[in-house]
Amino acid sequence: MNILFFLRFRGYLETAPAMWAAQTLLQGATPSPASRELAHACLRHACALEPWDPELVALANQLGQTLHLPPLPMPQALRRAAVDALLEGRDPQELLALPPASLPAAARLRLLLGLWASGQHQQVFLQETLRWSTEEESTPARALLAWAAHALGETTLRDSLLHRVPPSIWRENLLGHLALAAGDDARACRHFQESLVLEPAQPHLIEALALMADRLPLPDPNQYRVHILFYTFNKLETTLRTLESLLASDIGDAAITLLNNGSTAFAPKDLDASVARLAAGRPIQVVHLPVNIGAPAARNWLWHLPEVQEAEFVAYLDDDVLLPRHWLRRFLADLLIYPQTCAVGGKVVNPNPFHTIQYIYRYFQEVAHHHIRFTPNAPLALDLGQYDVLRPCLSVMGCCHLFHRRRLERLGVPDFDVRFTPSQVDDLERDIQIWKHGGFVLYDGRVAITHLQDAGSAAPKSEASWAHVMGNHHKMEGKFTERELRDIHHAVHAAEAAWWDKALERALPLLAPSAQSFWRRQRQEQLPLHATAHQQSP
Question: Residue 374 falls within a domain, yes or no?
């Protein structure tokens, strides 16, 4: 792993990963100017995300002096240790109910970001954020909180927070994000360019500019043979919500098959009647199995149905997802444009009011003999647009996958492995098999899927559940040799690095001179990082 990949992977760096990255870049007797410049950028990330910490800003400014960079503004705040002591063991709602004079702005901001990341206490968050929007003093923190208001759908509060706010990456990025959603690429481009002047070390904006330069019309699903598959066990209500969301999306005449995987909580006739009501005359095939055969076998059963074998593109959905309208057209475009790609998935968000990040993409963090450790599924819970990118990855979340059937067949990629029954890691292992057999997996963060099962708060808790998860992970480790794992690891990173280099090449002419210079220097150096057993990334 190198620091530039680390930055691309995480999007933004909080204090701990920023300090680790900066320390890694500055180790040795004479760090290069490009290394020092990137180290300073990592610290700037943390200062932008956590602007209450004067010690962090002082450290960044100390390094900035050696690069002849203007100092970052020093916050008028308590020391981090003092804020920690003030907040420790106290209820956030109780603290935020205190008069403003009793709780420093630094502590209030930390509490608000904590509520946002947890996806909880929406009303408390809104009440306190509204106070921020009416204060006389204008700070970049307003624009940061505007992202949370945007996630909540509070457009009036969002616009109030952005009004009279000083220039910041959060302001320009949100305005660019809104312009993109409105279809105004030219305005979005201007905001992203300005943000990259303020902070060039934002790889996701480089990728966004490259994607805008290559934008093509989305394909019509009716021009292709598409079959959409999902299966359920004892989840009648969420299955119907998923089906309703699916039918409201732009899927054209795509075929739909639902497998009832031996459900015992409702009668088959109840599911049939509910599906017919929602379908309103649209043909939807429902298959009833007498027993639950588990997720891998259910997927394989559906895959081998004669009518599904005729499809060019096959989608798998979990029975608890809500889909954006354009999901299928966007995924079809990805598979059609990039000929090595066999599977594509999107950005998965939690069902809480803030739609925090649940799962993005995964890579190998460590591989050895019968040993696999993955990168975190959600490096940062706050959605600040940093994951709205398109890039190769080891794996995407299996709750909404689109596969190119003919490419999988040509490469000889095996079925889902029934040894992972009833579930856990079967979809992850299949993505690894795609790379092993010479295909690509793509992540497209422009497709945001709401997963109604919050993987964070609903993770397995019983000893038996954890034993099952760890057992399946151990089975997966035993399926691959060390050489295979290292080859896959190399192939994934080589593909991602080539993808990034191409995106940077396309975006460079669109950048202001200062941002161009920053990225040209980083590109020349590449800055390799070989992590040791004593120095793993946080």
Answer: yes
**This model's pTM is above 0.70:** yes
Cβ–Cβ < 8 Å for 229, 314: yes
Distance, CA of 293 to CA of 298 (rounded, Å): 6
CA distances from 49 to 144, 170, 311, 314, 410 (A): 8, 10, 46, 40, 46
The two three-digit tokens of residue 493, written as one number: 């990173």
Tokens 């696999």 -> residue: 372
**Pairing status of strand 371-374 against strand 364-368:** antiparallel
Q: What is the largest CA-CA distance in the chain?
A: 73
What sign has the CA pseudo-torsion 177, 492, 343, 396?
Answer: negative
Q: Is residue 432 part of a domain?
A: yes
| pLDDT class of 216 with cuts at 50, 70, 90 | confident
Beta bridge partners of 359: 348
Three-class HEC string of 63-89: HHHHCCCCCCCCCCCCCHHHHHHHHCC
Partners of residue 229 on adjacent β-strands: 257, 316
Q: What is the pLDDT of residues 95-128, one digit of tens each?
A: 777 776 677 777 788 888 989 999 988 998 998 8
Q: Phi and psi dihedrals of 154, rounded to 5? A: -90, 80
For 57-84, the pLDDT digits (tens) are 999 999 999 999 999 887 765 555 556 6
Residue 134 vs residue 420, higher pLDDT: 420
For residue 455, tell me if it sits in a domain. yes
Of 66, 96, 111, which one is at a domain's C-terminal end?
Answer: 66
Q: How many domains does the chain have?
A: 2
Q: Of 31-40, 299-308, 446-455, where does mean pLDDT reach its minimum?
A: 446-455
Residue 316 one-letter amino acid: Y
388 φ, ψ (degrees, to nearest 5) = -85, 55
How do 390-392 and 255-261 pair as beta strands?
A: unpaired
Cα separation, 17 vs 254, whole angstroms: 44
Q: What is the 3-state secondary structure (H, E, C) of 323-337?
A: CCCCHHHHHHHHHHH
Asked if omega into 422 is within 30° of 0 (cis), the reply is yes
In CATH, what number is assigned to the domain containing residue 348? 3.90.550.10
- Tokens in use for 174? 């949100």
Q: Are 404 and 437 in contact (CB under 8 A)?
A: no
- Inter-CA distances, 154 with 18, 146, 159, 160, Å: 31, 9, 9, 10
Query: Cα separation of 254 and 281, whole Å?
Result: 14
CA nearest to 396, candidates 419, 366, 374: 374
Using the predicted structure, report yes or no on whether residue 457 has a pLDDT greater than 80: no
**Number of helices and strands in the chain (H, E):** 23, 14
Q: Give strand ranges (E) for 208-299.
A: 226-232, 255-261, 285-289
Cα–Cα dist 80/292, whole Å: 53
pLDDT by residue (tens digit) across 153-169?
999 999 999 988 889 99
At which of 41, 66, 91 does a domain end?
66
Joined tokens for residue 432: 């690894």
Residue 511 falls inside a structural domain? no
- Domain residues for 10? 3-66
Residue 76 tokens, joined: 């008028």
